[in-house]
Design goal:
Elements (H helix, E strand, L loop, with lengths): L1 H32 L3 E7 L18 H8 L2 E7 L5 H10 L3 H4 L5 E2 L16 H14 L4 H5 L5 E6 L13 E2 L24 H13 L3 E6 L11 H8 L5 H26 L6 E7 L22 H4 E7 L7 E3 L4 E2 L3 H8 L16 H6 L3 E6 L2 E2 L2 H4 E7 L3 E6 L10 E4 L15 H16 L3
Parallel strand pairs: 1-6, 1-7, 2-9, 2-10, 3-12, 4-5, 4-6
Antiparallel strand pairs: 2-8, 7-8, 11-13, 13-14, 14-15
Protein name: Sulfatase
Family: Belongs to the sulfatase family.
Organism: Arenibacter algicola
């Protein structure tokens, strides 16, 4: 009888140990499968050259330099268009402007009298933009896609499409009410410039609810007005050719400081290892030396000073850091790359690829772009340029209807990154081949 009792006791202990082991294993698996927090960091009006890690001689960006060293960093990244509203819409949807139809910043209809004033200052601007917003609300966005994984999504900073909820965000700073000055960010534009507390509160809310979060951090930085703290301005006044340039350089560092504050807060909350950081700039900027405006080779232009941006992906322990100076990437890749990291299916309408898939990035032959009028109506009336970027060539094709006096341009963007030497006349076959790629891209819709 004693032997039988001993056998029963031994079996019971074995069962309990096995059960305990299985429970522990299940907990470990659940922890491993917990989706990461996702933070999109978006610079606003900054040239691809204007970072320490990209080689600028004077601008200090220690926090973004550190992020670059810890990320899969692509130095030849591009946005599909060099204007903020359509660029941001492409980042959040993963599709070209011609697919989400946010072509420019302001919509002007035939017969609208601008009276020599910017369209955004006139009373009919808000009414004209309503159909753009209504169409956008029907589109799939990353916050909407993330809901199936239980994410809470937060909007801070610039946001052109009315209320934050129009993009699928659960919470946000931008009300988008025209009666209260809503156009491109309203209250959201205070983040970074007037502290980070609202953003921190969103993070705390997600942690309290034990939910993964998606954070859209798109501060109005280094965007004008260029009014940096005096302590930063003084650092650059003796280094810059003019005060206008010094102010812009100081704004770049101010933006970098806020990025450091954001990343430090996530570290303080113990979330760094469970957070995916993605960085991009919405469009470029070259500061004029003698006034506060930008040089026309940058913003709204088809040149790399308007389109090119470093793009970074950091997930500590999950993404191997690497500085990639050869692969071509696009902001359109951000959504499909995030979905792939989460093990989610890629919707057919997306125009980008998973850039962390070595086969996909190796097989990519080109990335594309398209630029429309700031004050737009239709694709046909507003299209200014189409571009294709390859290794090593970039082709710029002006629209024959809307830019009839401009010629096709070809540059070797790896040997000639500042696009000084137009090769179109001496390499007609390259021009023809790249023109066919553009036409194929436009005719092959998802």
């Amino acid at each position: 009888m004693k032997n039988l009792s001993l056998v029963v006791l031994t079996l019971w202990i074995a069962i309990q140990l096995t059960s305990c082991k299985e429970v522990k294993q299940e907990i470990v698996e659940q922890q491993e499968e917990a989706p990461p927090n996702i933070v999109f960091i978006l610079s606003d009006d900054q040239a691809w050259t204007d970072y320490g890690f990209m080689g600028h001689d004077h601008i200090k960006t220690p926090n973004l330099d550190k992020l670059a060293s810890e990320s899969r960093t692509f130095t030849h990244g591009y946005v599909p268009t060099s204007l903020c509203s359509p660029s941001l819409a492409s980042i959040i949807t993963g599709v070209y402007p011609r697919h989400h139809m946010v072509l420019g910043n302001d919509r002007v209809l035939p017969g609208d009298d601008k009276k020599g004033k910017p369209a955004w200052t006139l009373p009919w601007r808000d009414k004209n933009y309503v159909p753009v917003i209504e169409n956008f609300k029907k589109l799939n966005t990353l916050p909407k896609m993330l809901k199936q994984k239980g994410y809470l999504s937060f909007q801070t900073g610039k946001w052109w499409i009315g209320n934050y909820s129009n993009g699928g965000f659960d919470y946000g700073m931008t009300h988008g009410d025209p009666e209260r000055g809503g156009r491109h960010g309203d209250y959201g534009l205070e983040i970074g410039r007037k502290g980070m507390d609202t953003l921190y509160n969103y993070i705390d809310l997600a942690l309290e609810k034990k939910k993964p979060f998606f954070m859209w951090y798109a501060p109005f930085l280094p965007h004008s007005p260029h009014n940096p703290p005096d302590s930063l301005l003084q650092k650059y006044l003796t280094k810059a050719p003019t005060e206008y340039v010094a102010k812009y350089w100081a704004m770049c560092e101010w933006f970098d400081i806020t990025c450091g504050e954001l990343m430090d807060y996530i570290e303080k909350k113990g979330q760094t290892e469970n957070t995916l950081f993605v960085y991009v700039c919405d469009n470029g900027w070259v500061q004029n030396e003698n006034d506060g405006a930008y040089n026309p080779i940058s913003k709204q232009s088809p040149y790399d000073y308007g389109l090119r941006t470093p793009i970074m992906y950091k997930w500590k322990g999950k993404i191997t850091p690497k500085l990639d100076t050869l692969s071509l990437t696009s902001s359109l890749d951000m959504v499909p790359t995030v979905l792939a990291l989460l093990g989610m299916d890629r919707p057919e309408e997306l125009d980008g690829i998973n850039v962390l898939d070595e086969t996909e990035i190796k097989n990519r032959e080109a990335v594309y772009g398209e630029i429309y009028n700031h004050d737009f109506n239709t694709i046909e009336d507003g299209l200014k340029y189409r571009m294709v970027m390859t290794n090593p060539y970039k082709l710029i094709v002006p629209d024959p209807k809307n830019r009839p006096n401009e010629k096709i341009q070809l540059y070797d963007i790896f040997k000639d990154p500042f696009e000084k030497v137009d090769l179109a006349g001496e390499r007609p076959k390259v021009v023809d081949d790249l023109m066919k790629k553009i036409e194929t891209s436009w005719s092959t819709e998802p």
